[in-house]
């Protein structure tokens, strides 16, 4: 289902953020709105979903103005989901990790406060990272990279502490603009400076650790990169 389809919007209410349902009552608003929509479209089917706690409880219901031939059906998958086990969380992880997803927190004035990164370590455990200096620029540096691409929490922390302008480096060559780039290449890692579509001073490394060291050295000796956050 297209996310931007004008004929079939993703949500009938906008959910809690936009519908403004009080407390835990926003799914009641979804149900009420869905009933109105189904009454207007005979034979149609509507999907209503909800979640609770820290996104650990999920529920969904299928509704229609045409009764089911099997009557009302209900099923709980709680035991199956609980039996699947959870993912361990690593505290203070330092090293390579696979980027799962990320988000940016904004204050009331609309300015970015911090970027929050969710990553998976090599042993499968989950690690969290926060970037508080120039968070939106850090995310733009990650934007366009494959969601499973390898990133290093240590490098992100170092770049933030060193006031490296996130606009001056990319962890994927798919992002546009002039910047130092690190990307997977020919079974290893390539580091180069991207400018007007050209890959300048490209070097290949057999592993990510050496490639990141190369990227750090280039950023450290680039005075422009180190001035970025102080000028903004």
Throw out a few tags for this protein:
four-stranded antiparallel sheet, 2 domains, 28% helix, four-stranded mixed sheet, 7 helices
Task: Give a topology summary.
Blueprint lengths: L14 H5 L6 H15 L4 E8 L4 E8 L13 H6 L12 E11 L5 E9 L5 E6 L3 H8 L7 E3 H9 L7 E2 L8 E7 L2 E8 L2 E8 L2 H14 L1 H9 L1
Parallel strand pairs: 7-8
Antiparallel strand pairs: 1-2, 3-4, 3-6, 4-5, 8-9, 9-10
Written overview of the protein:
The structure is a single chain. This protein is an alpha+beta fold and 232 residues long. The chain folds into two domains: 15-83, no CATH class; 96-231, no CATH class. Helix content is 28%, strand content 30%. The protein contains seven helices and ten strands. Residues 143-148 and 227-232 have low confidence and may be disordered.
In short:
The chain has helices at residues 15-19, 26-40, 78-83, 135-142, 153-161, 208-221, 223-231; strands at residues 45-52, 57-64, 96-106, 112-120, 126-131, 150-152, 169-170, 179-185, 188-195, 198-205.
Number of DSSP strands? Answer: 10
Broad shape? elongated
Biggest sheet descriptor: 4 strands, antiparallel
- Count up the domains: 2
Structural class: alpha+beta
């Amino acid at each position: 289902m297209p996310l931007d389809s004008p004929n079939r919007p993703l949500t009938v209410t906008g959910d809690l953020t936009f519908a403004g349902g009080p407390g835990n009552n926003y799914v009641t608003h979804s149900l009420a709105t869905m009933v109105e929509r189904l009454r207007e479209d005979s034979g149609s089917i509507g999907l209503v979903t909800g979640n609770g706690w820290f996104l650990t409880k999920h529920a969904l219901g299928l509704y229609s103005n045409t009764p089911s031939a099997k009557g009302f059906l209900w099923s709980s998958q709680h035991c199956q989901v609980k039996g699947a086990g959870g993912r361990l969380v690593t505290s203070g992880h330092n090293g390579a990790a696979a980027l799962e997803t990320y988000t940016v927190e904004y204050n009331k004035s609309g300015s970015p406060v911090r970027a929050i990164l969710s990553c998976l370590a090599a042993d499968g455990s989950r690690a969290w990272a926060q970037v508080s200096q120039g968070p939106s620029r850090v995310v733009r540096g990650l934007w366009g990279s494959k969601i499973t691409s390898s990133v290093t929490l240590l490098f992100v922390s170092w770049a933030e502490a060193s006031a490296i302008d996130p606009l001056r480096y990319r962890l994927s060559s798919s992002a546009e603009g002039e910047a130092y780039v690190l990307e997977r290449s020919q079974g290893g890692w390539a580091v180069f400076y991207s400018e007007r579509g050209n890959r300048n001073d490209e070097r290949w490394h057999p592993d990510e650790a050496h490639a990141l060291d190369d990227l750090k050295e280039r950023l450290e000796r680039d005075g422009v990169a180190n001035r970025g956050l102080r000028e903004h």
